[in-house]
Amino acid sequence: MIPSKDELYSAFEKLHGYELANKISKASVTICGLGGLGSNVALILARSGIGKLTLIDFDKISLSNLNRQQYLFSQIGMYKSDALKKNIAEIAPYTEITTYAERITEENIGRLLFDGDVIIEAFDDAESKAMLVNMIAELYPDKYIVAASGMAGIYSSNGIKTRKITERFFLCGDEVSDISKENTIFSSRVSLCAAHQANMVLRIIDGKIDA
Amino acid sequence: MVKINGNSCDSVIGINLHDYLMSASFDHRRIAVEINGIIIPKNQYESTIIEDGDNIEIVNFVGGG
């Protein structure tokens, strides 16, 4: 049975205290890329009671995504943005969700709506990652960006860390493990990295602006 | 003294960021460059001259996600 909004949020208040639960419930985060990083970040933030998520990804779900991305076999062929919205609704029915099934490029980034104070970079391609971080810093200098780089393979978990690069730019990952034929992506390490990103978002929401 | 990714590097004082990145073989499409806490827009790489005292961090993105 789905709880009422009041029941759910009073449960969050009991768990985390009124002040923090209230901050999280009022926060809005945009997630760019809904693969192994983005789908995990979205679910973690949804479970934490985040108020609003904007989900952006042009891609549809394929079989090879399911080793690490938070979708179901029955959702193969759906847009990731639509499927993730559905999956979030099952666990966080009162989180407001906006979706864009669009590829973010240098040309359209100025007209896409990046809601909220924090943007998650969760692409898989290195050039797209760099483009997003550079463009957000240039066009939206007041927003926080939490990016990820280096989580391929099954190297030590302890290599994954969060680093503060500027006052508004945080980087999660080991910064070196590139994806390749020999170095593929596993759920374990990409989830670790996603958890770093989600935790950094919660810290920013709570006003703790350090890694 | 100039610091690049934590290492002292005084030979770069006076040259522009674009030329430094080319000489150090960085792939422009995969990096973000921060100098003294500010991310430098790509279209300002050529006009940004590296000065004494600059603290430079070059983030080199790798793939996966």
Could you explain how this protein is built, in words?
The complex is a heterodimer of chains A (211) and B (65). With 211 residues, chain A is α/β, with parallel strands linked by helices. Chain A contains six helices and seven strands, in the order ααβαβαββαβββα. In chain A, strands 3-2-1-4-5-7-6 form a seven-stranded mixed β-sheet, with helices on both faces. In chain A, helix 1 packs across helix 2, helix 3 runs parallel beside helix 4 (80-91) and helix 3 (38-47) packs across helix 6. The longest helix of chain A is centred in the last third of the chain and has 19 residues, at 187-205. Chain A is globular. The chains are: A alpha/beta (211), B alpha+beta (65). The A-B interface holds A 33, 35-38, 122-127, 129-131, 133-134, 137-138, 147-152, 165-167, 169, 171, 175-179, 185, 190 and B 29-32, 34, 37-39, 41-42, 57, 59-65.
Relevant terms:
heterodimer; A: 211 residues; alpha/beta; Rossmann fold; 7-stranded mixed β-sheet; 6 helices; 7 strands; 36% helix; B: 65 residues; alpha+beta; Ubiquitin-like (UB roll); 5-stranded mixed β-sheet; 1 helix; 5 strands; 11% helix; globular
What's the short story on this structure?
The complex is a heterodimer of chains A (211) and B (65). Chain A is α/β, with parallel strands linked by helices and 211 residues long. Helices cover 36% and strands 17% of the residues of chain A.
